[in-house]
Specification:
By secondary structure, the chain is α/β, with parallel strands linked by helices. The strands form three sheets. It has a four-stranded mixed sheet, with helices on one face. The chain has two domains: 88 residues, no CATH class; 160 residues, 2-Layer Sandwich (Zincin-like), CATH 3.30.2010. Helix 5 packs antiparallel against helix 6. It has seven helices and eleven strands. The protein is 34% helix and 25% strand.
Length: 284
């Protein structure tokens, strides 16, 4: 899988702390979470405890340490990885972990957590130039459904007092919108450029706006609907270029420039775009 240079996580490394605060990918529902408390003893320091979470991922190829304001220290391992092998890794990265946790604590102090998720009054998708006013209709049922009408109204019906159910229903509708609009747009740009792809999917990704595999399978983030048409087109061209060049070498950027002469400016805007997402679109 190619790691695009506009990978939001790469932007995090440049800004030191990332707007991932409060973000959580829906894929986590399919991943195993195990809580651990590890006492890490540094040779030159007294015992220093770290609370951390082990997350087993079917997509992980190696062990990664991730520190975020939302979850603190998280150890991401391939599925089936022996947890007994984690303590030496924590020991080796003790200094980096402590430094990262200190930065996170400073971030928490400066930027308190967002308020609890609420049903938005209005939803706008700049990418397709559509806007909806949201209406709520309480009904005696355990489910929540989303209905759209031709007058630009979006109706949430059912157990609307449950934020979790409302969020899930709204996100399902959001994904349907993404598949309906983003994939056809990708096909259109593919025909224009002559860069074909094999398969396309739309997901709620946490760290990338898009990706492309060696098998020419393109994955698009549904959050692209929240961006301007210019940024969406750039992301799609970027990923389609990976069907020709599976790297970020000079030839790759030359291909990007043939379709997006101002790609550098767009790339700079895209790195900050995560911070502009509306609260309703941000996961827990």
């Amino acid at each position: 899988m190619v790691k695009s240079n506009y990978d939001i996580r790469a932007a995090c490394k440049r800004s030191r702390l990332h707007a991932e605060y409060g973000s959580q990918d829906s894929e986590l529902r399919r991943q195993v979470k195990i809580q651990f408390l590890l006492q890490v003893r540094n040779k030159s320091m007294n015992s220093a405890p770290f609370n951390f979470t082990v997350r087993e991922s079917s997509r992980a190829r190696y062990v990664r340490l991730l520190v975020t304001p939302q979850r603190g220290l998280e150890v991401i391992v391939p599925r089936g990885y022996s947890h007994s092998r984690i303590p030496p890794i924590i020991e080796k990265k003790h200094q980096w972990i402590r430094s990262s946790l200190d930065r996170v604590e400073a971030y928490r102090t400066r930027f308190p957590p967002s308020p609890a998720w609420k049903i938005p009054e209005r939803i706008a998708f700049p990418a397709i130039q559509r806007t909806w006013q949201v209406e709520i209709y309480p009904e005696e049922t355990r489910q929540v459904t989303v209905r759209e009408n031709s007058k630009g109204l979006l109706q949430l019906r059912g157990n609307v007092g449950q934020a979790i159910a409302c969020r899930a229903a709204l996100h399902r509708w959001w994904l349907r919108q993404g598949r309906h609009h983003l994939i056809p747009l990708l096909r259109e740009i593919s025909r224009e450029t002559g860069w074909s792809f094999d398969h396309a999917t739309v997901r709620r990704q946490r760290t990338r706006w898009g990706s492309c595999s060696r098998r020419k399978s393109v994955s698009l983030n549904v959050k692209l609907l929240l961006l301007t048409p210019e940024l969406v087109r750039y992301v799609m061209i970027h990923e389609l270029c990976h069907t020709q060049e599976m790297n970020h070498a000079r030839r790759f950027w030359h291909l990007v420039q043939t379709e997006c002469p101002d790609f550098r400016a767009l790339n700079k805007i895209l790195r900050q775009a995560w911070n502009t997402l509306p609260e309703w679109a941000c996961d827990e």
